[in-house]
Amino acid sequence: MTSRLIGKSQSRRSVLTGMAAGAGALALPSFFPGYTHAQSSEPIRLGFQLHRTGIGASYGRWYERTATAALKVLNEAGGINGRPVEIIFEDDGTDPARGAEVFGKLATQSNCDLVFGALFSHVVIGTAPRAAELKVPYLVCSEGHHVASGMLNRWTLQPGITDVKSQVQGMAPWVAGNLGKKVTMIFPDFAFGHDHRDYFTAAIAAQGGEVIAQIAIPPTETSFTRYFPQIPAETEVIYHVMVGPAVLTFVKELGEFYGSGARPQLFGFIDSLEAVDIASPGLEFLEGSHFWEGHPRVKQADASEHEVFYRAAVGVDDNGASVTDPADVATYAHMFSTWETLFVIKAGMEAAGYQGPADRQKLVEAIEAMTEFAESREHPQGAKTFNGKTHQAFGLQSITQVQGGKLIRVHQTSLEDGYYPDEVDYTSQSF
Amino acid sequence: MTVATRIWAVHLAVLALLLAGGFLLPAYHQTNVAKVMVLATYAMGYNIAFGYTGLLSLGHALFFGAGLYGAGMLVQHAGVGAGPAALAGIVAGGLAAAVVGLLALRTQGVAFMIVTLMFAQAGYLTILYNTAWTRGDEGIVIAREARVLMGFDLSADLPRYFVGLGLFAAGLVLKLWLVRSPTGRVMVALRENEERSRMLGYDPYARKLAALVISGLYAGAAGAAYGLLFGYVGASLASTQYSILPLLWVLLGGAGTVLGPLVGALLMFYLIDYSSAFTTASLLVVGAALVLLVLFAPKGILGTLRDRWLKWLP
């Protein structure tokens, strides 16, 4: 489903001005294409590859709301280079083949200047080749390591969210120092789970810890009871990253397995429970356990003014749910990336003096030249650094604990915790 | 005009239209039609097994995936060029079909469906689990510099379109020849009455195996082409969905018709593309279209045309 958002409606005066400018431009010989383009008051058109349907729909719903809220703020502040901005949302069905088609549709049919917003890794990886073919910037909000690993191309960037390798590495020192050093990992037996397995195993080893068991759960599994006896008795921490509809069953059955007796510490990525109320029946077992959150869904006592502004603008209450429906829990740990990416686009376009599609390469180069994003309304999740060579942002990560059914932050990493050596230099690649 | 002339004229006219499309279509539709031609090639192969031989397989995603990964992995991990990789993909598709066929053709009907489905699911999970090689559900990107065939950059719109057209045209001509040959008539005889074919001296097992292998070669070729033309090799393209899709394309276009798979794939692609602009329930629209088809044109679009007006259509 395509939908379009225009932040500013045009006044009669601006339309007449635009018509006059257009007529003038037509009358002029094309000696000054840059000048004539610079006078355009046409909206800048941004394509949004949206997981409106398919497995990513719960994320997509909130990604759309967040991007819409950011667009409103951006246009109220004058748009980009004085031009209003428009977002055209197109559903990709959370499917990589459709993702590439949607990218082409946004770039060549809707004439978008760039495309952003995709979260799911397989959609990003399936789409990135098309971005390079069309030479259209593709700004992803995926947290996958695929950008920084060098797998993609110069037109694909991830300036709005930290990648999973950095997230996992950032968590490991605190887990080893506070929860335990003997870790059993339970993860889905496909690429997402394997990334966690590989990155965390290395990261905890660097902290003097050890992964003593790796329990891979087949993606077709609907009951998990038979896997729990594989958890070694000496396990101090269970690291779990189950995703999908079976996650509630997983937690419930884990609770039944341990009963009211002693259990290891639990540490999980909130990906398991994004858009799920942590106080849902069956999740009582999670009380006292810890989670990674990119951005804590519960408003913390020390929330910054920027965080408060962002939360209100998107329409999220203090518990992390929609202000209009407390049962509609946000995908808060990830969705900030669409907001922040939009403001990186604004900064990039303004730095590049962006006028139109001919300046797409300049835009990529302008973003590559960025190094830091200060905590601000534009970056409410917190300060970040951006590595132009790897096209990847690095931000602060939070560890929260379930206390009385709410996720309360107990630790925040430093930026340095998440750094790792560069694996690619996209700036050395041609466009 | 003889029937043979008329048949060739119609099919060549379709190819001429597609050729013209390469020059006339806007960029977005050019890429779409290139993809449809690759998928229609896959569906043509499916039609040889299902539409002509009566083998209702739910395992063709394995053959498509074998071609996709057979070509993609060689390019990605062994640095093999696009041409040899494509050939390897075709062979991989045929080989997968031969192995599955040797076992699955010992069954018939619903059992054949289930056994082929199980093989395809096993193949899908193999891709999913072996992330070190396949990157599982995420898939892998075929580097742009590797997507060059005989000097043509397959990542550019026009060469991609014409390579897709070349693949489709080769598949179409071969299929047209096959279904009008004695071998093709035996395939139809097997579909209509296997016991009678056996009594006439044909070996149903060998004939069905041959049909399945030919079908697998088509699927492998389409899979390899998909990876090389569009630069992405992912597990979702080898999932059950990709066993069911060619069945739907063939049913929509007309099972047992040469051009039916193209018509079905094209219609369903654009049905989803256009309906998704208005509703999130685009698959419901597809479902409704299929229900209407079953009610009013159970033999598919070209099958119905053939029944009513174009008796000569192969």
Structure report:
- Chain B: The chain crosses the membrane at residues 6-28, 49-70, 82-103, 110-129, 158-178, 209-235, 247-271, 283-305.
- Chain B: This is Branched-chain amino acid ABC transporter permease.
- The complex is a heterodimer of chains A (431) and B (314).
- With 431 residues, chain A is α/β, with parallel strands linked by helices.
- Chain A contains 11 helices and 18 strands.
- Helices cover 35% and strands 21% of the residues of chain A.
- Chain B has a domain at 24-240.
- Helices cover 75% and strands 3% of the residues of chain B.
- Chain B has helices at residues 3-24, 27-52, 60-78, 82-104, 109-129, 131-134, 157-180, 182-192, 194-199, 204-230, 241-253, 260-275, 282-296, 300-308; strands spanning 140-141, 148-149, 152-153, 232-233.
- In chain B, the strands form 2 sheets. In chain B, strands 1-4 form a two-stranded antiparallel sheet. A two-stranded antiparallel ribbon of chain B has the order 2-3.
- In chain B, a hairpin with a 2-residue loop joins strand 2 (148-149) and strand 3.
- The interface between A and B is large, with 37 and 36 residues.
